[in-house]
Amino acid sequence: MAGFRSLARQVRDPRCDLALRRYSLRKCLEKFAPYGHRATWDHLCSRAGFGPEDRSPDPARLVAALEELEEARSVWLAYEAEFTQRRRKEKHDGLRRPGSVDDWHRLTWGGFGVAWCDDPRVHPGEPLAEVLRRLIAALEREPGAACPVCAGERLVWRYDLAHEPSSGPVCTDCGIVVPVPVLTPGALAEARRARLLVSA
Q1: What is the pTM of this model?
Q2: Is the pLDDT assigned to residue 166 strictly greater than 80?
Q3: 141 burial class (0-12, 13-18, 19+ CB within 10 angstroms)?
Q4: DSSP, res 53
């Protein structure tokens, strides 16, 4: 099975058939898709200016989508490398029990679903790398009361999400499932109350 970099080379290769180049970009999302496969594809298509169902997009637009994905992936891989180094040091120092951020991180290893969007048509509009930088910054500071990506305060607890964890606070502004460790207990309680009001 081809890796991310091999697939990226195919997307860039003008000797490859256009259908293969598009297919290779889609396959890249099996390796790295911060919003989930469908939502990340929808995001890349809208940012690069071609339709999700467009079978023959402009090759330059495919490469633009790939470049956005690559930049975001490099941001995430740098975070994972720092995370691994920190955990090694903690284990060396005798801290064997991981914290809540570590539990969340275990579910998103490799970058799939880091900022999961359960509705593939509702996702942040900013570049993927910027979204990941905001999310990482939130993971590295004290919990807050708003979405770390868009600063929206309308969070609603949703069940039956199509990703692990299967329930959590969803930002109704940008659509991401907000990682529980970045929110205060009060914000989590408010999200649960909002769910009750929505379902009533």
Answers
A1: 0.90
A2: yes
A3: exposed
A4: T
